[in-house]
Each structure stands twice: as structure tokens, then as C-alpha cells.
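Continuing the series of single-chain predictions for the mutant panel. This is the parent chain; the variants come on the following pages.
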Amino acid sequence: MFVRRLTTSLKEQHWVTIGIELIIVIIGVFVGNWVNDWNQERAAGRETNNLLVELRPEMIQQRQSMESIRKYLQITGRYADVAFAGWRRDPRVSDTQFVIAAYQASQSYGISANGQTWAQIFGGDQLRRIKDAAIRRPLQRLMTYDYSLLSYDRLDSKYRNDVRLIIPNDIQQQIRAACGDHLILDGRGLGLPPTCTIDIPDVGGAADGLRAHPELVGELAQHESLIATQFTNVDLVESQIDELEHAIAHLR
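Parent structure:
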């Protein structure tokens, strides 16, 4: 119908009619493209929201990992306090408690998590589709965070190496067997017993060996400073996870 009218108008040189018809066609094409783009954008937005909602289990797991690191290192810190008291020859700390605490204070724990999980889902276009800055900002930080700062190697200190050279290996094995790491979070994390009350025969020699190396006190203090840094790193990641979870809580 439109082509017939246009042909007739051309033959009769009805230029106003021709102009109006062309404008109608152009507007129609523009509106059609705009509606199509709008529908695609809405579909992409729904897909992004669904991905954000589906990411919540990953956020929960990451937060649990951060909490397990904090709890583990808090326990090693309490052992460190006992070890310091042992070096001071505090009468309330027995030789057995001293040796156990000196060893347990050297225990370390980190995670191998990285930002790939976040980046694989929200890399490039997906992240740009998130219009809400309250969601985009913490997600981008979690994607780009240097997770090596939370790795096990960060606590591979001089104290950890030196104290294990001094405590006899058979005593270390006894401590690990009775009070060593155990799996938590369905195998996704590690825990450490907050107390260890095993009896270690002939432990006096090990205690004397530790006290013969007072430099270990300074090394343990340095080890504790590394742990303090780990707490800061854990707090940073946790804060971004909490901010992201709060921001997407209203999404369905």
C-alpha cells in the first residue's frame, strides 16, 4: 500500500506527500530499532540481575572462608601469648604448655581464592550493564583484588621456620596428631583447636632449647605483625562482600 502511494505521488509530483511518507518510514524504523534495543537491554539487565542473585552462594562461601581465617589466626595469637609468657618464665605456664604454644603459634592458614570466579561471570560487558554503582563498585573491587595477600605463603615467617628447627620432630608430630589442623566448612576450610592439653614426656629439654634462643621472641613478635596485616586484608574483603550482599539483597 505504501509503495503504491509513493509511486503515485512520484508520478504526480506530490512532494509534500512523498516527504511525509518518508518521514513516517524513518520514524517507524527508528522507533522499531529503539524498541528492539530497549527489549534487548531489559533482557540483558534481567540476566545480570539473575547472575547477581545466583552469586550469593559464592559470596556466602567467601565470607565463611574469611571468617575461618580470622578465627584460626585468633587462636594462634592466643598460643603466642602463652609462648611469650613461657619465654618470660611465667610460673603459670608449664614447660609442656610452653612448647605446645610455641609450636601452635607458628601455625598458619591462608586461602587460594582469586577473582576469577567474579571476573568469569561479570567480566567486560556484564559489569558495564550494572547501572547501580552500589552493586558495581564492590563487585569490581572483589574482581580486581589481589588475593595473593591472603595466601598461605604470607605467614611463612622466620619464626615459623626457626621454631620448627628447634622443637624436636617427635614432639611436633605429637602436637600435630592431637591438636593439629582439622577440616571445617565441608572441607573448604581449616580449624585449629583452641587448647591442647596432651602430656609430652621429657619435654623439659625442648623447653630449655627454646629458651636458649631468645631471638625467637623477636621473631614471634614479627610473625604476629604479619598476622595483624592478615586481619586487615580479611576485613577489607569481608567489607566488600557485605557491601555487595547488602546492595543485591533486593534483587529477585
